[in-house]
Amino acid sequence: MIVLKFGGTSMGSAKRMEEVSMLLKRDGPCVVVLSAMAGVTDKLVETGVYFKKGDREAGMNNLQWIRNRFEDTCLELFRLKPSRDTIMLFLEKAFDDIACRVSGEISQETVNWLVVQGEMITSRIFADYLQECGSPSVLLDATGFMRLDEAGEPDLPAIERLLTPMLRLGGDLIYVTQGFVCMNHRGETDNLKRGGSDYSATLIGSAIRAEMIEIWTDIDGMQNNDPREVENTFSIRRLSFDEAAELAYFGAKILHPACVWPAQQFNIPIWLRNTMDPGNPGTMIRSGGERQQITAIAAKDHITAIRIRSGRMLNTYGFLVMVFKVFEDFQTPIDMITTSEVSVSLTIDNDNHLEGIVEALEKYGIVEVDKDQSIICVVGDFLVDRFGCAARILHSLHNIPIRMISYGGSQNNISFLISSADKKRTLNELNTGLFRMTKLPEYAHS
Q1: Strand stretches in 246-352, DSSP E
Q2: pTM score
Q3: In the CATH hierarchy, which top-level class contains the domain 295-444?
């Protein structure tokens, strides 16, 4: 069995849904994981904000906009009157339920329930459309199997236990379900946060030990650099799980940062494909051999750098423990870290608790803060750098002011901290220096 995930753009119109239905004409059963139609989740999030602020008029106007979007799509999508009447009746009831749910006090639970309704409605529309086309489909409610534990993390054993019995109906069925949607440990409807449909797909694929997980988007797989900042980019045909995870974490928008891990646990390949160009080979992510090469570049913005200088570090132990404890207390992850005899420099991408963090760190030394920084991450299979990759990278950046360098913590990642003002220039310098765009690297084609 394979798992296929289609994003909001792939579900963004009646024409797109028709195209996706054609991609599902293959032998064997499959699980199809769907995002909401493009733009709907953002509108629902905004709607929740309006209702929480007491602006019911703006909230109801948003709901009407969303309802019109779904109704117009269904009128274009469904050809047969009985199926069209059925889906329009469903939409009427669905939006009546939403209006009822938001009519009283708006709790966070209500907001969490509201923002996943785009996935719930989109998946019902698509499942009904498959039935009209003669493709046998079954609609699965993700709240019936997708579970979070008390720490707010997916509970993979529970997902496997609950989902596996649902997939035993036999035949070449298409099981349609929702990405992003889950239930938390309190039994409330919740979500896997922004981009969580990718995560849903790889969790489902891992739970059922799928042969393959296909993630369909609107671009030709993972790019070697950010095409928004660099003109000469190309698609990478092969990536290892570790390389893909590094790129996703450090800014490659095509993948949710957490979604590689579940597939990697069971060695299930992830194939990134383009709904608009199904013939494009995209990017295959799987366990790979040692290739000793530079693969791609990614950038992560909105970084804050913090440096703590203290003579107490010299010839002592326990200093770093105290520093890390501050970030643990404020539940703020650290991205990069470098140390010297008397200072520690580190970066965070969440400055919600910055004031409290700085105040706590000042007990241990002088604290300096630099905002508006970017992490540039060069990803590849460096091993012990037998081929001088670090030298090539540094040579490419000889004109760029570098704030921090992180090298050696991973064989797949060399990271640099720079001012965000230098980001575009840095990405272009690396693209020229590392990939020599007069000729594409061999691995870009393979």
Answers
A1: 270-274, 283-285, 294-309, 337-339, 343-348
A2: 0.88
A3: alpha beta
